[in-house]
Amino acid sequence: MTSYEIMLSESQERMLLVADKERAVEVLDVFSKWGLDASIVGEVTAEPRMRITQGGVLVADIPNRSLTDDAPVYRRPVGEWKAPVPLDPPAHVLEVLKRPRDYTADLKKLLASSNICDKRWVYEQYDSMVQTNTVQGPGGEAGVMRIKGTGVSRSHTGGVVEFLAASTPEGEAALACDRSTNGERGLAMALAGNGRWTYLDPKLGAMHAVAEAARKVACTGATPVAATNCLNFGNPEKPEIMAQLSAAIDGIAEACTALGTPVTGGNVSLYNETKGVGIYPTPVLGVVGIIDDVTKAVPASFRKAGDAIFFISAIRGEGRKAKQDMGATDFAKTVLGELWGAPPVLDLNEELALHKALAALAGKGLLASASDLSDGGCAVNLAKACFPRDLGVRIAMRLDSDDPFLVTERLFSEIGSSVIATADPAKAEEIQAVLKQHSGVWAFRLGDVTDGNYTIEINGKTIIDAPVRALKDPWSGAMVDQLAAEVVTA
Question: d(Cα 443, Cα 335) in Å, to the nearest integer?
């Protein structure tokens, strides 16, 4: 490779590490242990210049400012972007939504959809148990990693107990951590992004991506502290695509500022088109949070029959337009094959209040589980929380009427700043007392975790009553079935 290629190529899996010069051999030994190539390629100097040599020949000598403050800036024309879809549901969709539905069939279809189905086939390709630090592994809302050495050791077991516990659903090893350590800190990490929402409203969609990733972290009891991003867009030389990118960046900046999650790094993937048509603008946000005691990390799935199920939210309802919101949901895409409307409203102050409330509840050990209310809505969220331990639910809701649209909206709408949580029923009053200390955050009881079926009643009428296995099967097998059905042509 030429020096030009080495410096500017974007090949994968190459990392640059800056370390104490006196400990360079230790660093190299670590790479050698794992069979990885590593070389010392330079050193940090006091002079603000980057000098690069190859074979003893100087091939680059650049002032640092030329790569930072004085770097060229593209001034792309920023046009306007308006999604070419109606704001209100089309007449034919309204007619469909007025009719009674088979909600069990709708739920099964959603659970098998590509956005919602079990991703185990993907994440099992990778090791999620490095050094037995995994407290909550893939499959939940956020991953949680213990930081060894940050607590007071009681009786270390060489990692065997932690590994076995982490092999349970979601890889949760919180109990094992409790046996071996006292108060070790941890990191919680989550990803979120919704290209459909950003397509409908680039700024608001990007704000939701930040808020959802941070909310998933907060569900574990951690405090979100930083973010990274991957911005996936079409051709920015087209003014309307540049408008998407510009608005999305504005949304990320606003949300990260409000939620206290500064962007520490990221990357872009541009010019993504098929036959001249750009992909959905899809900013993917990663958020990391800190939890002071990993033994108090809250898992996503239900723990045991008899626990009470709570809807916890910071939404006050101003500005919500349910019929427009429904057009942006997975239900509209997967079940109706339609797209309209806009993403749900988002108040970042409400979102931040919810995060603080979740951290307080987790810190007091009041929650048995907590999961973000997002893709697929309440009905999907409840089902996925049942699956790891094959538990059931009995939910009872009240609506102003039995209008089929209202029922559909309650089951499958996707709103921000809300979670489904479970707790010991005896702790209900204490939970409410904690929430009173967090302005605007409220909760009500939806029902109970059971050993039986997945059952939802609305206004006293049973609308879904199915064995949990009948819902879990389409969810767990969908990805493998879809991959097997793909036709590969050379």
Answer: 30
Backbone torsions φ then ψ of 190, nearest 5 degrees: -150, 155
Asked if the structure places residue 269 within a domain, the reply is yes
Is residue 85 one of the residues assigned to a domain? no
For residues 351 and 375, state if they share a domain.
Answer: yes
Collapsing DSSP states into helix, strand and coil, what is residue 19? coil
User: Which residues in 292-412 belong to E strands, given as ranges?
Assistant: 308-313, 369-372, 392-397
Q: Which residues of 250-271 are buried (b: 16+ CB within 10 A; e: fewer)?
A: ebbbebbebbebebeeeeeebe
- Domain-embedded: residue 428: yes
Q: What is the DSSP letter of 171?
A: G
- Quick one: 368 and 420 in the same domain? yes
Residue 81 falls inside a structural domain = no
pLDDT tens per residue, range 434-455: 999 998 999 999 999 999 999 9
pLDDT score, position 34: 87
- The terminus-to-terminus CA distance of the chain in angstroms comes to 30
For the chain, the domain total comes to: 3
Instruction: State the pairing for strand pair 392-397/442-450.
Output: antiparallel
pLDDT score recorded for residue 131: 76
Q: Is the Cβ–Cβ distance between 443 and 340 less than 8 Å?
A: no
User: In the predicted model, what is the mean pLDDT of residues 380-403?
Assistant: 95
Domain span at 33: 3-67
pTM given for the model? 0.85
CA distance 329 to 294: 34
Cβ proximity of 284 and 246 under 8 Å: no
CA distance 419 to 200: 24
pLDDT digits (tens, 9 = 90+) for 332-351: 999 999 999 999 999 999 99
Phi and psi angles of residue 240, each rounded to the nearest 5 degrees, phi first:
-70, -30
Cβ-in-10-Å burial (0-12, 13-18, 19+) of 155 comes to exposed
How confident is the prediction for the chain on average, in pLDDT?
90
Is 157 a residue whose pLDDT tops 60? no
Task: Say which DSSP state 298 is in.
Answer: P
- pLDDT tens digit sequence for 358-384: 999 999 999 999 999 999 999 999 999
Backbone torsions φ then ψ of 184, nearest 5 degrees = -70, 145
Are 292 and 305 found together in one domain? no
